[in-house]
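step 4 of 6: structure.
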Amino acid sequence: MEIEVRFELNGKDVAVRTDPLSRLLDVLRDGLNLTGTKEGCGEGECGACAVLLDGHLVNSCLIPAISLEGKSVLTIEGYRDTERFAVLKEAFAGTGAVQCGFCTPGILMAAEAILRRNPHPTEEELREGLSGNLCRCTGYAMIVEGILLAAEKGTGIW
Amino acid sequence: MVTAFRPVDLREALAVRAGERTIVFAGGSDLMVRGRSIYGGAPRFNLPVLMVGHLPELREITLDGGVLTIGPCCTLSRILCHEAVPSYVRAPLLGMASPPVRNIATLGGNICNASPAGDSLPMLYALDARIELRATDRIRTLKVADFITGPGRTLLKEDEILTGISIPLADFSRVYYRKVGTRRANGISKVSLFAAAKLSASRVEALRISLGAVAPMALRSRVAENMLESLPLEAVARRVDAVKDCFASLINPIDDMRSSKEYRRTVAFNLLENYLCNLISEEDFS
């Protein structure tokens, strides 16, 4: 039983024919060729596949296609055209927050989810907000530093 | 490929349940993992799935007459943000999973999963939470503690859907929650302890204690609670061994990849002692 699901993706309406339980992760990567969203663990532990669904950070490996009907999805491909992304990108480059880069799309979506609710988070609030995202390279210190720097440089845009 | 129903309202959902055997699918944070294959792609189940997470009737939170009613498909994040939800209900939910998973996972899912390590369960047991179950032709309510009958086992009938979770609120002045796991986010409990007490200036007025992940289901000991209630505050610490004795025969942990039974048993006793010895100190642990 394939179904057609209609939702908004990065600001544009899309319709996808798919298995109802296809993971949003696979809809994005295999169906729509948006490979910025990464698969790490495939069980909600690592956050590499994080996207925003109706403005909320979710692991796309846990979202079945059928539940996307009428919703809005923002992936790294849509986010990268924003001023907020530009500020985060520069701050991440400046603090060395990216090493292998595999976790980075998920971390950036988490950063956006945190900053849009709390434009000037404390380090503790930031670490709690990032707690669903694993990074095996940086030890997190540079990522936290990068987001705090972006929050400061981007005052007023979140 | 799995057949999936996406009803427009609760009535239609109940009609589907009445018509055929289905797996009720709320947030999906557990089911999407449970049904997956090592080759990736869509998860597989041996029955059709019935999506209910989107139904507005199952996503409300209300406070009426001192009873907090939470729709089973409210995500943990939504519950945590809601002003009617007191800190002692929030405490265990804050320690569950991670922010992105809390945006997906539901309280109803945690109950129906009936995991021995389900982190909302000690709180729901301690607070005497009740659930409402509906079918097309009937409604019944029962205590969460009676609904869960074993690991992964509940009294949910094939034509029923969990439609409400009711928690009678009380003015607990001291709440304690501790979860022991390998990692703060996304860790599955090795042991947890939830306790809530109402203390007067000199006495324990009311007290509830529940342990998680040390037996097939969350544990409560009425004998221990009765022993502590109405005690003068300074006498509580002297009853630590007696309270441990009450729980000793109930605690029955397993050895698994996450922990050993000896560790779980020892830490459960340590948590009980830590709670009781600090009950009358100034700071709140929640």
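step 5 of 6: annotate
 - The interface with chain B takes residues 1-3, 19-23, 26, 39, 42-45, 47, 50, 53, 56-59, 61-67, 69, 110, 113, 128-129, 131-133 of chain A (CB under 8 Å).
 - The two ends of chain A are 42 Å apart (CA to CA).
step 6 of 6: archive
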